[in-house]
Design a protein that fits this description.
2 copies of one chain form a homodimer. Helix content of chain A is about 30%, strand content about 25%. With about 350 residues, the first copy, chain A, is α+β, with helices and mostly antiparallel strands. In chain A, strands 8-10-7-11-9-12-13 form a 7-stranded mixed β-sheet, with helices on both faces. Chain A has a 6-stranded mixed β-sheet with strand order 1-2-3-6-4-5.
Chain lengths: ~350, ~350
């Protein structure tokens, strides 16, 4: 049984059973967006690690070194935001092909530094390693949160509303555009075995906004922190692997069901246009596609006042109610045109596609 | 100019100039074994990250998955030990080839978990990513240290004694043995361009101890923590890249010179035997070779009592005085048979060899 055959989630579940039981000071352990550690004097440290790999998460054919550095930090800040933690520091592990230009490595660090500066994050250290394979940038980020103010995936209750920030699908559409141009990671559209048909000749080329959303995802740091501080949500997760994945994960971790209203999904205009031009169903594509670094929240039905207070404080991005958590723990309903579908499974990194 | 041409140290120096200035809460920033971060209530968090890469740090031809998992954590615990920090938690980022067997990944986690348990380290989280290239295991470890009790590379003063733990050269000799057998990472001995001659026919095969030291380095956690707590040292560094590298780094960071006495070097017996059988100078090989995860300390000349107290508390490994730090910041002397040589440069990960 190979890693590719088993898939990421199943592999993770297997590995978690093999770890030693964390000490009592680990308040949130493996399996959430980040870990929460109690330090000796009752502080809460939130730590997360995430790697971006050439050929999997980006391609040097279309992402500049600065894009890559930006992205490697952004995906980690997004994980901290999903825990409602304020990012403080980062460690950067660079696994570099020997043939890479030094100027490119410098640009990569510049791209990361610019984002770090914007969020007041100190790059506290790191490591440089050689590889004979693809470029890997692995970032660990640390942040702070007040006791009991962090948001895990496990806090949603039946009756809570499901809210999502920003718009959906733009990053996935942007990645498709890059693949179509033969520049994206993974099999190109139209490649044998990719399962993706070439677009009809003369199909419109889309706006560049979708591609930018793929290359430079915006971590929703202010929103996540504000939601936690105001206790406006009971659970949160970022959409790194797409909405469908996040909905499944939060429902499973919280032991609740979920009903999502397709008509309410804030699908990005550029993504909607792109999929329309290619004859693809936008709802299915937008909720299955990964790389949206928006946040999903479980908001108590009586918490509207708190949510309004957060929205006054953080106006951008917008937040949209897209569904509700339900009592039946097995329910995964996508309501569409009066019919009930099952929410498809999300993005799987090891899936062959 | 490529990464390989510039070399790791020069690349690091260039990149450090490009980072934003760390906030005042970062007490020790990039460039040491680990970073020290002040949390809001005066705690000191020590964090470090280090990756092991297939084909560079290990080969799956001779290291078991458990060896690889062990090693990935061990090198990080060694960095914390070199800061005198007690390890508390780790995050594990696995960058996995899709073709890797799930059973192997599980064994890898088992090997890591066993070491984590031995040192009371909680694996608090991590991440799994696919790659089309070699296996990469990147670990971030966090630990605690009392205010002002950590040990950096920069604290050595002229007149301080240079001490080293354990024995030297075994890991480097073990790696040579594996390469000779065609199983190690990097060019094999006798391969074109490796600059390494094949041993004479009939040369003795060495004891397996050296190979074990390469595969399973022992992080000197108890010793490092005890030295810091007792204030028995003013500076420390681990020998991940070998003694020569560490001596150069500590002297440069501290702005002092250094004189090392070749006769006092605790060269491992199995390494000495191996190099003798191959007609290689053991002193040169032992101090240049990487992968010794022993600790180097700068001990104040008047600190003998404190050092003795530490040795009563931590008897294993032994520690050996091998030299002295001096006033002349440019001095890098290896005293040998009454003659003064210059200490060679250490291991460079990006060097072509």
């Amino acid at each position: 049984l190979t890693v590719a055959e088993l898939g990421e989630h199943a592999l993770l579940a297997r590995l978690l059973t093999r770890l030693p039981r964390p000490s009592a000071t680990v308040l949130v352990g493996p399996g959430d967006d980040a870990a929460v550690v109690a330090t000796a004097r009752n502080e809460r440290l939130v730590v997360t690690t995430d790697a971006v790999v050439e050929g999997v998460h980006f391609s040097r054919a279309y992402s500049t070194p600065a894009d890559i550095g930006y992205r490697a930090l952004a995906v980690n800040l997004s994980d901290l935001a999903a825990m409602a933690a304020t990012p403080r520091w980062a460690l950067v592990s660079l696994v570099l092909p020997g043939s890479m230009q030094v100027a490119e490595v410098e640009e990569l660090v510049d791209g990361m530094s610019a984002l770090a500066t914007r969020h007041g994050v100190s790059v506290a250290g790191g490591n440089i390693t050689r590889t004979d394979g693809p470029l890997v940038v692995d970032v660990t980020a640390g942040g702070e949160v007040a006791p009991r103010k962090w948001l895990t995936r496990a806090g949603a209750r039946a009756g809570d509303e499901l809210w999502v920030s920003g718009t959906l699908g733009a990053a996935a559409a942007g990645l498709e555009m890059l693949r179509l141009a033969g520049k994206g990671p993974g099999p190109g559209i139209g490649d044998p075995g990719s399962g993706r048909a070439l677009p009809a000749p003369g199909s419109r080329l889309p706006a560049p906004g979708c591609v930018a959303r793929h290359k430079r995802p915006e971590p929703r740091v202010r929103l996540g922190v504000a939601m936690g501080r105001a206790r406006a949500a009971r659970a949160a997760m970022d959409l790194s692997d797409g909405l469908a994945d996040a909905v499944h994960q939060v429902a499973a971790a919280s032991g609740v069901g979920v009903r999502v209203d397709a008509a309410s999904l804030p699908i990005d205009d550029c993504a909607r246009e792109w999929w329309k031009s290619r004859g693809v169903d936008a709802v299915t594509a937008a909720i299955a596609g990964g790389d949206d670094y928006e946040l999903l929240f479980a908001v108590p039905a009586k918490g509207a006042g708190r949510l309004r207070a957060v929205r006054r404080q953080v106006a951008d991005p917008a937040v949209t109610k897209i569904g509700v958590f339900t009592k039946d723990a097995h329910e995964r309903v996508l309501l569409r045109d009066g019919k009930e579908d099952v929410i498809p499974q999300g993005f799987e990194h090891f899936a062959n596609r």
